[in-house]
Amino acid sequence: AEESLVGLKIKDYTFLRLIGKGNYGSVYEVFSEGRLESAAAKVMPKEIFKKKPKLMELVKTEIRVLKECNNENVVKYVDNFMTERSIVIVMEYCEGGELQTYLQN
Description:
The protein is of the alpha+beta class. Helix content is 25%, strand content 40%. It has three helices and six strands; from the N terminus they run ββββααββα. A six-stranded antiparallel sheet has the order 1-2-3-4-6-5.
């Protein structure tokens, strides 16, 4: 099991709470000191990329698309970086959970 990042400060981000888990990692609410606001950080352990090398290309594409897409209906890209164990994509924080759950309701 992966360890929780809650309470840690990495780069400009303080990890506040876990808000979701998926097949490829976890999503945390983080607070950005520089922007003085909350954001969402998708944290993917590097070990999953060893098992699925194609996944790295998908993550790079996701980052590129998020950077290029500037639409009020698409979550905004904030930052991305690597730690010793993980790849992290920081995005705008949207309350209300996942779109899929919203649509099902």
